[in-house]
Design a protein that fits this description.
The N and C termini lie far apart (about 80 Å). The protein is of the alpha+beta class.
Length: about 230
């Protein structure tokens, strides 16, 4: 094809231009799903241009590779979107406690957790012992005490053991269930490993723990309990 003004507006020229236009638009997309989709369309237009008008086997080969790579990534994104769908209770928990986490990272976090129940008076954490589990209260209450003195209470949405988890120090207080308590339980070692592998998840968990610590301090100041 000769390089002239008229050649730009031929069928082949329009298809070739369309390939580059779609590629440029795809690079402007902030959503990776649409970036991949437009890149695939760009590759298809480019492949058609190379095969039908240019008879360029080298260009056709690399356009095919470009399409296949982006198609694989696009299908993987579809799979992850489907996999990351949350149930209404999961969605509520994520929004309330882990608002920074994506749905997929939140599901990865839940995969490391197990549900556990505690009866009234049952001890979750003993002062001075190693903190090996981090708890997230779902239902019920827990009493945080130093000796015989209650210093605070953990309510639904509160973490238990976060100071020991953060600083890897022995528990600073004893925590006891005050009624039938239901929690999500995270193994501290497993959670640390997961956070080291996933910086976004680490940020989401850290934000959640810091926000809950601030909430507890405000609540304790309002109720007059010492910290």
């Amino acid at each position: 094809m000769e390089l002239t003004i008229e050649s730009i507006f031929t069928a082949g020229g329009l298809v070739g231009n369309l390939s580059y236009i779609l590629l440029i638009i795809s690079m402007a997309m902030r959503d990776i799903f649409w970036l991949r989709a437009l890149a695939i369309l760009s590759g298809i237009a480019g492949l058609s241009y190379d095969v039908v008008w240019l008879y360029n086997p080298v260009g056709a080969f690399w356009e095919t590779c470009f399409i296949l790579v982006n198609l694989f990534q696009w299908l993987w994104l579809l799979y992850e979107k489907k996999r990351s769908l949350l149930t209404p209770p999961q969605s509520l928990l994520r929004d309330q406690v882990f608002p920074v986490l994506s749905s997929l990272d939140f599901l990865k976090l839940l995969e490391t957790a197990s549900r556990c129940s505690f009866e009234n008076g049952q001890v979750l954490v003993n002062k001075g012992t190693e903190v090996t589990r981090l708890y997230l209260v779902e239902h019920g209450e827990a009493i945080v005490a130093l000796g015989d003195m209650e210093i605070s209470r953990c309510l639904p949405g509160d973490f238990i053991g976060e100071i020991g988890f953060f600083n890897q120090v022995p528990a600073t207080a004893t925590v006891t269930a005050s009624n039938n308590l239901e929690c999500l339980m995270f193994d501290c070692t497993m959670l640390h490993r997961l956070m080291q592998k996933n910086p976004q998840l680490e940020r989401g968990v850290t934000v959640a723990l810091n926000a809950n610590l601030a909430t507890k301090l405000i609540r304790n100041n309002e109720t007059g309990l010492a910290v």
